[in-house]
Amino acid sequence: MTKIPVIAVLDIGKTNKKLFLFDGAYRVVHEKNVRLPETADEDGDPCECLHSLREFVHASLEEALALPGVDVRAVNVSAYGASLVYIDAGGKPLTPLYNYLKSYPAELRNRLYERYGGKSGFSRQTASPALDSLNSGLQLYRLRMERPELFTQVKHALHLPQYVSFLLTGAPCADITSIGCHTALWDFEKRDYHAWVQNERLAGVMGPLRNAGEVVNGTVAGREIPTGPGLHDSSAALIPYLLQFREPFVLISTGTWCISLNPFNDTPLTAGELEQDCLCYLSYDARPVKAARLFSGFVHEREVARIAAHFNREPAHYQSVPFIAAMMGEMLPGGDFASRDLAGFHSDTAAYHQLIYDLVTAQYHSTALVLEGAPVRKIFVDGGFGKNEVFMRMLAAQFRGMEVFAATVPQATALGAALALHGVWQNGPLPQQLITLAAYPDPCAEILG
Fold first, then answer.
1. What does the pLDDT read at residue 270?
2. Which residue ranges does the record assign to the Carbohydrate kinase FGGY C-terminal domain (predicted)?
């Protein structure tokens, strides 16, 4: 039987761990999806269980290799960032994988800022808002300062995508998309590690930097397979768009976080933008990507539960609420929905429209931060909110004069990681239609027209 050539991608999210097999046209031909139990670090804070993660990586790939009808030609990884695995000379983790939401000692943080130009200057040079443990460089600094004896045993500090790659290859490395993801490690002006990383003797534990398309042989069930270095998930999700569209665009990638990404804006971050959670990522080809973040997916889930409880509905009902244009005239000025009294709404539909209006108003201001100074006419929205008609219609009303599209990219982060290795595992050009677009015209213009 002729086997179909495929690439395997391990897609490691905070909640779901997945494995995908993509064929030559980048269609998913196999998928595995699991949720792994969390464990706790030495302080009792929840964190990823590295033992369970290692078992998933090896078991899922071994299963993929055993599938009839497919030939796994390459492996890559996409994973969440802001998390470091500290390994010793034998490749064994020395600590838990600390949660990026773990509290951070203010005295230690302030000492670092004071030594290196103050909070504002430090954040601007590293294109990283001051986010405590979400700045993975500060996690590394904390380990060295608080546990110096343990730090001397650290051979390499690997971001999570690179650790998963290391499990297969035994070759430690660093990747520009992980280093450039609000880590506070990278100097965006000098395009190198920031001076503080050198001065605090941290650069020596960072793995050698590898290009996104560079592979080394990994081993699965005794078989050697070309394996990529891994990519930060937000940067991986941008790859299909960069490959398909040449005209400038902004991508709003929605989920728990809603991240506005503009790969066509290289203006330096200002102090004001940093204060509003604006930052820079680095694309897989090392280009700065101006970005702004909102916690909208989390807020949506929390407030939908509140609306459902108040109006005696099931939360699942709000997965498919139709847009009612007439309600646009009833909307209160955008604000914090959590502070609104639900008794003031005549129906759950009215309350839900107001919730989305509040979220879209915040989204407009967040996205505007990355639009300024860049010639962009198109906005693409992928993820959960791209499937939400109320959100998309209201977003189109806010961005008048721009083209707004819901973009459907099956498994965008995993697909991006697969595309980064395109030339490694197959010949020929990329497929032309990686992304499906649905246009959303301004509903106010439709009403007036």
1. 86
2. 247-421
